[in-house]
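1st attempt posting a full record on here, be nice pls
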Amino acid sequence: MKLMFQIVLPLLCSGSFFLSGQTNYDWTFYDASNSPLPENTVRCITIDSNGDYWFGTDLGLAFFDGLNWIVYNDQNSPLTDNYIRALEFDANGDLWIGTTQSGIFTFDMTNWTVIDPGNSDLPSYFIRSIKKDQDGAMWVGTVEGLARYASGTWTVWTVAGNGLNSNNISCFGVDENNRKYIGTINGGLMVFENETITEYTILEGGIPDNSSIGMVFDSNNNPWIASPSGGLFTTDASQLIVEPIPNWTSYNMLNSPIPTNSLTSILIDQQSNFFMGSTEHGLITFSPPSGWEVIDTSNSALPDNHILCLLQDPEGYIWMGTSTAGIVRIKKNVQSIEETTKKPLLLYPNPVKGNLYIEGFDPYTPVTISLETLDGRLIQEFDQINNTVPFLEIDMSAFAPGPYLLRLNSGHDQFIKQIVKL
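the predicted structure (as tokens):
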């Protein structure tokens, strides 16, 4: 059977697009073209006590309650700096917003307050990270030092004043014992306990990389650290502080299936699976000790391989902020044994110039095919095709070069594959 595709005007629609991807995830997309999201570079995500979402972008702050959006920026609010790098709620429920040029803005849903080096002891206008600890203290990472705000007082640590190895504070972690882990760029890892800072570097502490970009804690309270150049590493938390050189376990391109050493973010989901964002290889999942999966633009509906931030909501959805494609939300489908043992759907060649061949579905089962853009807009949809052989041949020669999503419904099964037209 040979199908000739013809280009027609896409069906325009707004809101989110729901897809079931090759990697058995449900997909939802929000970007500047299908929602009020102000910009497609999304660098941080948090959830408030009502379960609503807040997104920090390069063009302001966005609020989303699942239906309605509100955007705050320098055009409609006291938020005078649109470049947002960190979001965290304090013990009073006020949102702390870290920016690149104006310090911190706090927002109690009515009033705005600015905290900067001009009116406080904050060491820099450039904020990289903010974290609340179990005592309600707010820890702030800047490019010129570490700061803590507690009981109305600022305390600052810097290279010059306290002998830190780096003033560039990139991330925080707080474990179940309220021990603070402080990641830096090129300065190693700092562990803060009982008002004492212990530093671990490659030379002094055996840490696999001196830069950290994100950290989480497993069920044993052990830290797992994502690095921008050293992959993923961890250690037994009981060795920290008491051991000068702890035993570090490292996962990198030389000793594991991880496809890159350049990570951007990390989380552990409700089933103890690891999700890691990367700069060029999309989303990487890891189920210790050996279960690895790469979800990228070549094997799924993921629209951008550069993931900037990750968050899991109470319903189990993973939210991703991307560099150029806005927000992506995924949740893994629960499949039956019969579904997981079926022969996978094959498309070849991919990339394709002329004919595209599809194999792997049941013959004598009606098949519906549609071609879509990466953000889910329909280009062409076909009526049911009663095929008698388990393959289809599609002529793609009339299409403009670029990436597309091919959706195929066969019986109770739905498949989505990304293809590239040369």
